[in-house]
Amino acid sequence: MNKPIAGFSKLSKEEKIRWIAAEYFSNPEESISVIKNYWNSDAKLQQLHDEFIENTITNFYLPLGVAPNFLINGKYYTIPMAIEESSVVAAAAKAAKFWSERGGFKATVLNTEKIGQVHFIYNGNPSKLEEFFNSIKDRFFTETESITKNMQKRGGGILDILLKDKTDLLPNYFQLHATFETKDSMGANFINSCLEQFAKTLKSEAQAYDLFTEEEKNIQVVMSILSNYVTDCIVRAEVSCPAEALNEDKNDTSHDFAEKFVRAVQIAEVEPYRAVTHNKGIMNGVDAVVLATGNDFRAVEAAVHAYASKSGKYSSLSHAKIENGIFSFWIEIPLALGTVGGLTTLHPLVKVALEMLEKPSAKELMQIVAVAGLAQNFAALRSLTTTGIQDGHMKMHLGNIINQFEASDEERQLIVDHFRNNSVSHAAVANYIESLRKSALN
């Protein structure tokens, strides 16, 4: 039976690994070997990775692939993608090539505001609180000057601070709702530092405000934190072409294919069960680029899925139409990204990814990421509405299945040759490998 451990964080890396191996694995030495096999041979580089997080024992690798031929606003990009799922990179590359021959992708950043809030409890007259807030609003700006000085030099800083009455949701609940411009940084630490100073200013000024009663002076700050729901940090990506130029499947007329594609998007707009999977496909492209460029994919996921529910019902993030013979397909999503600070200046492969993208600004990266999501969605819908998604996906997944069965080089070649013209499934590959090995024994 496993036992709890005191002082785990104080153990050396080697001691942590030995304790885990002894407690959780039937073959401790084998597990230690696997863990250490993923250490980087460059000790300095390994130390860098060890210090990204706490209690590090090894590295967890994801493949870094590239999708070339993305024509975005008249400029070609090769997009780096870090992801483990088969067929995602291939689908993105295929969609990129398809649209590069039809005018490419257009992308526009609609706005870049980010949000932070100080949540507090105030027991008193709301109108008095509003008068108090208006009288001290300038203090929030002046008392954060040491924090905002460098950001202001880059053209960013605090845009505005509002007092919001939320007592219809919770008794005595109010907010300081602040908006920020953080330029090329994602800005989480900057925003949170400002907010914590706002909270200190709010409490100290309330204590000194003569028009408050003693109870009103005792404002209780619950928390000060940025919001990842960046409803005013939006990017739009789109493609369009004559409907007749859309189809590559000789079994469908161009008009039929375009209509079927639009109908598939409309289904995702009205049916949440389909919308979740539809949007997951978009995030295959988005997350892969966000991860490769050292950004926070959890924050992006949370914001994007909340945005998909902004109408009160979860719906498709992408939209399509045919108008006057022109097919249009577009997406608008919230993306709070950075190209300076955090992992962007530390992780060697993040530096490689950003250099591959020609060192984009945060706005340019927003456009690239949105396009990757739209391309992924287009590729998935084109497969779904024509050949079906499994045939292409499983062919790309074939290598993973072969590896599960530890096939030899000779077996691998025979398997690949066999499934060039046969449908791939886990069971079909397992049966074929079994037949190969039986034949070899006989």
Give descriptors for this structure.
442 residues, 10 strands, single chain
Could you characterize what this model shows?
This protein has about 450 residues and is of the alpha+beta class. The protein contains 16 helices and ten strands. The strands form three sheets. A four-stranded antiparallel sheet has the order 3-8-10-9. Strands 5-6-4-7 form a four-stranded antiparallel sheet. Strand 1 and strand 2 form a beta hairpin. Helix 1 crosses helix 2 and helix 4 crosses helix 13. The longest helix has 23 residues. It is globular. The two termini are about 45 Å apart.
Write the layout of secondary structure elements.
Elements lengths: L12 H12 L3 H10 L5 H8 L13 E9 L2 E8 L5 H13 L5 E4 L4 E8 L4 H17 L2 H9 L3 E9 L7 E9 L6 H20 L6 H4 L2 E8 L6 E9 L11 H17 L1 H21 L4 H11 L10 E6 L2 E9 L13 H9 L5 H23 L4 H16 L4 H10 L7 H16 L1
Antiparallel strand pairs: 1-2, 3-8, 4-6, 4-7, 5-6, 8-10, 9-10
Helix pairs in contact: 1-2, 4-13, 5-7, 9-10, 10-11, 10-13
